[in-house]
Design brief:
It is built from one helix and seven strands. The protein is mostly beta strands and 92 residues long. The chain has one domain: Roll (SH3 type barrels). The termini are far apart.
């Protein structure tokens, strides 16, 4: 598969810069005690989808998660009380 232009690829990342803050610290709604720091937004080589590169500050483990789709960073979730909200919550 050929890649779209570099300008279009960068635009995919730039369009999310106000929603996902590189350097920002977030918690997952299921575990409010684990803090994750965003290292970067990147592109998946396989499908050119934007992924979030983030590190668990407790364990030091680095993860990658797609922004959209099932289990995506910006995909809303149904919480235990039935409310719907963001999967990750910005702390600072």
């Amino acid at each position: 598969m050929g890649h779209i232009s570099n300008t279009e690829l960068q635009s995919k990342i730039d369009s999310l810069s106000s929603q996902i803050i590189v350097g920002g610290q977030y918690v997952n709604w299921r575990n409010l005690t684990s803090i994750y720091e965003i290292i970067s937004l990147a592109l998946s080589e396989w499908d050119e989808e934007v992924v979030v590169i983030y590190r668990n500050l407790d364990s030091g483990i680095t993860w990658a998660r797609k922004v959209y789709g099932e289990n995506g960073w910006l995909t809303e979730v149904t919480k235990g009380d039935g409310s719907i909200g963001p999967r990750f919550i910005l702390l600072k």
